[in-house]
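Contributing new records

If you add data, match the layout below exactly. Sequence lines come first and carry their own label; structure lines follow with theirs. Keep one chain per record. Anything else will be rejected by the validation script.
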Amino acid sequence: MRNYFLGLCLLFALCFTACSHSDDSVDVLIIGGGASGVTAGIQSARMGAATLIVEETEWLGGMLTSAGVSAVDGNYDLPAGLFGEFREHLADYYGGLDSLKTGWVSAVLFEPSVGNKIFHEMVDVEKNLKVWHNATLVKLEREKDVWIAQIQMKDNTIKKIHAKILIDGTELGDIAKMCGVKYDVGMESRHDTKEDIAPEEKNNIVQDITYVAILKDYGKDVTIPCPEGYNKDEFACACASHVCITPKEPDRVWSKDMMITYGKLPNNKYMINWPIEGNDYYINLIEMSPEERGKALEYAKHYTMCFVYFLQHELGYNTLGLADDEYPTEDKLPFIPYHRESRRIHGLVRFNLNHALNPYTQDEKLYRTCIAVGDYPVDHHHTRYHGYEELPNLYFHPIPSYGLPLGTLIPKDVDGLIVAEKSISVSNIINGTTRLQPVVLQIGQAAGALAALAVKNNQKIDEVSVRDVQNAILDAKGYLLPYLDVPVTDVKFASYQRIGSTGILKGEGKNVDWSNQTWLRADTVLLASELDGLFDVYPASKDEWKKTGTEKLSIAEAVQLVRKIAENERLAVTVDPETLWKAYGFQTLDMNRDILRGEMAVLIDQVLDPFNKKQVSITGKYI
């Protein structure tokens, strides 16, 4: 009997161990199911890699959903890759793109719960992708080029995961820190970055966070009790009102109707993420423990509830209250705050303001290596920091639209790790635009493509060809450079993207009112002076071209030049202009007229294929 009892105990212990600590193996492990984590998972899975997302909450989408920032900033004319897919799903749900224009701050607004629903639907159709919700990484090791992660599940059991590639999709770059990646926090000095709008001295000041509130109109008075410590003066100049006397930003004191409709969502809801003396809140959480962060965020939540009371009590919006059909949280607030800034890793390259302003004059030709695009101004939130007056004024600092280089995702000195979300290798200044939702969604997609290619080719991350990643992005209807000449559906789109990414023809960036744009100028006549980029790639042809002495090229001369380059490169190709012009929908072929830039781009791309035949390093150097 005693032996029988001991046997049962042993069996129970073995069963308990098996149930509480199981092993599993994946190709790609993503910690964090935020904006970049979810797109990394989808892209990786679509490219054949067995992929797992580990997410601490019940939702997917991060700042777009779990943080409540459901008003997309920018890229309305650049519907790149999975961002474009997500937007189309939103349009289908609500009844068209125009139905997303419910507030004036954005052309794409939606209910956070709907965004979460759509992300789950996108994930559910990917057979190579799994998601573990309410799960937390508790231990991470690396042995023989394999990551070993211990994940605590909702029921407190521990699952052990082996993975070839790890992606940090956390909001604050916590995994990068665990892996020993070097990073920066706060503002760099202008003497270090050479950015003329950076501060004179470096500091550890980060952008304000926001605990967003999603309100809905209940049609009756739902005013909350006055929060403890409430002070209406904190919010007095959030808009023009009887209590506003000394605004911090006199040029931006708008009506209360403008304020409340700023983030109006479908179905009579309102996103309260108001930057002008509203619910922005300064706190630097980055180096705090999870417990410290939790305590600190209670103050941010309280601040938001004070602002909600201000809206209800001082401004008369007493029928607006926290939506009861958005978040399944006890307080009806989002799962997480809106983090505008994170750790910024030391990557294989560092992207800064100068690369966006003047991409072609930098020592590193990073424009050749881009995998995502953005068109939003540099936008920093600092007015809740005590002493903000001494900081640079970074309210909508204009820049051209830009491409983001691949090397920002790859940390120095740590193998097997890709870093996404807002923790990439950028300067503090340029983070003011790379942090925005469409860019971060693309960052995740590129991270997923890079991870899947490393697995498929059995390569280290820094060994994966830049062009292979870029081709994967193009195959997924993504952008490498933010050209507006043709939409992604146009047959010429990929050729323009590829030739722009070689530097053979260069785009022109400009600011038009509030719009930041870049054009290849495909419909303008090509000038001989614009061929320097061609001769950078094919230097042997330069002297021969100089002999002609012409300022412009006819189509016949352009075809002859490309034929000569093909001959010098020993390419077994034929050039049939008539067939090419017809296939790409160009105007009627006249060999004697001046060739247009777009026609030259397609001619070079389709005959010489320099994008694939001339590989580049992670810094954009031809190799």
